[in-house]
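haha ok so turns out i had the wrong file open the whole time. this is the CORRECT one, sorry everyone. sequence first:
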Amino acid sequence: MTTSLTPALARPRGALRFLGLALLGSGVLAASAQVAVPFWPVPATLQTLAVLLLGALGGSRLGAAAVALTLAQGALGLPVFAGGTAGPAVLMGPTAGYLLGFLPAAWVAGQARGGWLRTGATLLAAHLLVFLPGVAWLAGFVGMEKALLAGFVLFIPGTLVKTGLALAGVALARRG
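then structure:
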């Protein structure tokens, strides 16, 4: 009799575990947003590193769920965005495209499998998915030339470093 109840009990526990991990991931993402260098118009943060690790280590669904929770928390006024900012205005401001780009980036990072070269390429592609909507949205505020320079080119060195750190984190997690 108890064996027929086991699958029914496992589903709610699995859902609660997933939600708990997604909330934990959103906390990690929110904390990474507080490490910010105030560039204009887009601050440099550790958010993309967190997004890559959430996706690569937690999987596509969990990584994207953690990002979605963070976006919802920020929209509701919790200070989870760069520098402790929050509210719907942030999701309509110059950095909104980058924030929304975290969703596909986490999903793609969750596909990071195989050897280090393939994993690194997947993580770099995920990182670049943050820039596509980010620069496109930012261009509406500052023009395309400034958006490319201040919203992408300036971030190339940091992007390479954070992608490398994410790759190292994935490699360490796979060993242990």
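The beta strands are 36-37, 44-45.
again sry for the mixup
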